[in-house]
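Q: What structure does this chain adopt?
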Amino acid sequence: MTGTPGRALRLTVLVGEHDTWHHRPLYSEIVHRAHRAGLAGASVFRGIEGFGASSLVHTSRLLSLSECMPVAVVIVDTEERVRGFLPQLDELVTEGLVTLDACEVVRYGDRGERGPGEAPA
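A:
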């Protein structure tokens, strides 16, 4: 292993792509708040099919273009920083699922980005 390993906590927020916060996509608001909070990074992934509390299966197949697809916002940082961000989600997420998973991070290279637990530049 040539990367730099470290312990971290992965936060995954599962919401619908049409969910909003003050007329802005909810996933975008979560990413911007994570950035302002100084978290190490956040990524958004759009699902191609899934179901949740409604038990309706949403799919990206041609006949279902108007469906509200599942979206996952993934944030990885130290446990302390991630848990400190949870009150933001209490305010933002009215319907969805949040998971927390302990993980090991292996960083490769240095592109001026900070890893979990490193202070912002």
